[in-house]
From TrEMBL:
Residues of the Transcription regulator PadR N-terminal domain: 7-80
This protein's name: PadR family transcriptional regulator
InterPro entries, alphabetized: Tscrpt_reg_PadR_N, WH-like_DNA-bd_sf, WH_DNA-bd_sf
Signal peptide from the UniProt entry: none
Length: 183
């Protein structure tokens, strides 16, 4: 997936400025990009060159001038074609597992401190996404099916953090049993 397709997806719902796109991409729990200005504006230039978006310059009296981007019919067709392609397999890369794999030099206390910090980060992230779920949808809804899909995406994101927390608790229990057996 390219950031271009994500932008087309957001523009399918409504016209947006580059700044609006940046906020949506940054706030999305499912997109892999940081949403920095270079990524977004480079993608918008490419989309304009392809004819998949147009833009209108809006002059505002009390605010800076801004460009509003809108998806074109050919952009809609490109988005549809992309959505219909086979999806990439999910990536399974976790820095936390790499850190654990190389944690043999840690003392028991250091390992438990690391697990505490990681678990607290998981709790924080889960609470963040739960609050975000309460406040907003991933994308504007156009119907019941889209609402259902958004709810299921939120459920998937939350289940990751819950599953990871459960795994940490099982790891702690296994370490405790091992430490008790060694004494």
């Amino acid at each position: 997936m390219s950031i271009n397709h994500a932008i087309l997806g957001f523009l399918r719902e409504c016209s947006l400025s580059g700044y609006d796109l940046k906020k949506r991409i940054q706030d999305s729990p499912i997109l892999p990009w940081s949403g920095n200005n270079n990524q977004i504006y480079k993608a918008l230039v490419e989309l304009l060159e392809e004819g998949w978006v147009t833009h209108e310059v809006l002059h505002q009296e009390s605010s800076p001038t801004k460009k509003m981007y809108t998806i074109t019919e050919s952009g809609e067709a490109e988005l549809r074609n992309w959505v219909l392609t086979s999806c990439e397999p999910p990536e399974f890369k976790k820095l936390a597992l790499a850190q654990l794999a190389f944690a043999s030099g840690l003392t028991d206390a250091e390992l438990h401190q690391w697990l505490d910090r990681y678990e607290q980060e998981l709790v924080s992230q889960r609470h963040y996404h739960e609050e975000k779920r309460r406040r907003e949808a991933i994308a504007p809804c156009t119907g019941r099916r889209e609402l259902l899909i958004q709810e299921m995406i939120h459920e998937n994101v939350l289940s990751f953090y819950t599953s990871e927390q459960n795994w940490i608790q099982r790891l702690r229990s296994a370490i405790k049993r091992m430490e008790e057996g060694a004494e």
